[in-house]
Amino acid sequence: MSSVLRPVMPAKRDGAGNHASYAAALSEDALSDAFANASPRISPRGTPAAAVLIHGCVLALWIVLFARAFFLSGLLAWSVGIAYVIYDTLLLTFVALKTVSLLKPLHEPPAKGPLPTLGVVVAAYNEAAVLPVTLKGLLEQDAAPQQIVIADDGSTDGTAALLTREYGLIEPPEGQSSAPSTRYPNLVWLRLPHAGKARALNAAIALLDTDTVLTVDADTRVARDACSAMRAAFARDPELVAATGIMTPICARTVTGRFFQWFQTYEYIRNFISRFAWMRADSLLLVSGAFACFRREALVNVGGFDPECLVEDYELIHRLHRHAVEHGKRWRVRVIGAARAQTDAPGTLPAFLRQRRRWFAGFLQTQFWNRDITGNRRYGALGLLMMPVKAIDTLQPVYGLTAFALLLMFLFTGRFSTALPVFGVIVAKIVADLAFHLWSVHLYRRWTGDRRSSRLPMAVLACIVEPFSFQLLRHTGAALGWLHALTARKSWGVQERAGLVDMDRI
User: C-alpha 264: how far from its chain's center?
Assistant: First the structure.
């Protein structure tokens, strides 16, 4: 990364409301040095025997269970499916038990002292169509962030014209930031050569001088009180270093868009409930970079985002946990129910599969780089519980697709004595999933207060239909992620942006 970037930043306000000048920008070279020390990709820690054993057993178990289908009859022939059902049910039980506390109102203590300053980074590459929606949400905040940096990653569409025409910004030379907007004093434009989202984020982090950094994707619209909710959370907990808010997916208003929004809405609800559970276990690893807040000092200590990772937000949380353990810090990662946002989600099958293959390939990358944590007592629950679960998750889609393929084989080959009990297991699993599904929706409503995107009748229907439709698509996307990870391909296509734009027109 270049170290020549220098900001031309607006003034910031201190806790008393007085103006203060910005300090010199952090050298991007210093950020790179910190990353090299913190990253297991750059500085591998070695692979302990426990990690090899756990990952090896997951693969060996699949081979053994899959082979049984060709040598056994009856329900035992579907052992790979039974293993999948048992594992998934145990996970749901764990989440249900860990989220009981959501039945009671969560009383957050009042923040002590002044709220931390907040800088927002919007990384954008050819996002002129949706950028106005995102900026509208940020510029209309109840408590305006001290800085908003548009990290323009070498856009070639109408982004430059949009920023100059609609937001009063003057185009800066490449590699530099603009003067503050004449219309919005906290808004600046960081113009960069195209090098990827992670490098754009790191360049913006190097320029910011706020206590906290909120990353917002250019296709995400935050609620009016989202920034104040994040600042309050960091003010309450000095050991909080990373937090994600609650996001709702928005797809294009088409037939396929409504289909994918329906399923993804309830998928997101379950995911955020699960994140709350893992937060309670002090093992939360997934903080969605589309809407996430970080303590800037912690970001700098670990070197920012990894430009080589396909899921830079997920990888970063591993590095924060690792740094905390290695340096004796009590850093925490949380999900903040009071911070809400809407994000554009894929509304067509090709777009959905592209997204999920990238997510899963990035997950595999991160799991491999951090394999030394798996089964490692030094990392507490993260090493002994969460990372072994993630080791199983690397092959969960393989288990799921194999189980479905075997069921089809039983049907087409006339092995109905095997297929019928399999259907019995599937029905029992749907009943269990439905119970968890309704539990998640109920808790989500109590936690967030959002009832518009969580209608119970539609939730029931989604749960019944999902195993034979959306769930198979998720597993297919993950299987494609395996393929791309193994072939080291780096082209992911262009993601469509239509949901937020369509909604903004209503």
Answer: 14
Residues 233, 141 contacting (CB under 8 angstroms): no
Q: Which two tokens stand for residue 457?
A: 């009748």
Residue in 323, 279, 390 with CA at minimum distance from that of residue 51: 390
CA distances from 87 to 211, 249, 319, 434 (A): 41, 27, 27, 16
Six-digit token pair at 97?
């038990």
CB atoms near residue 141 (< 10 Å): 18
Closest CA to 115 of 264, 279, 293, 249: 293
Phi (first) and psi of residue 149, to 5 degrees: -110, 120
* 3-class state of residue 28 by DSSP: helix
Encode pLDDT of 358-392 as tens digits: 999 999 999 999 999 999 999 999 999 999 999 99
What's the pLDDT tens digit per position in 66-117? 999 999 989 999 999 999 999 999 999 999 999 999 998 877 777 777 899 9
CA distance 404 to 102: 35
Answer whether 209's CB lies under 8 Å from 177's CB.
no
Place of tokens 């910005």: 22
| DSSP designation for 73 | -
Structure pTM? 0.90
In this structure, the chain runs to a length of: 506
* Residue found by looking up tokens 């203060």 in the block: 20
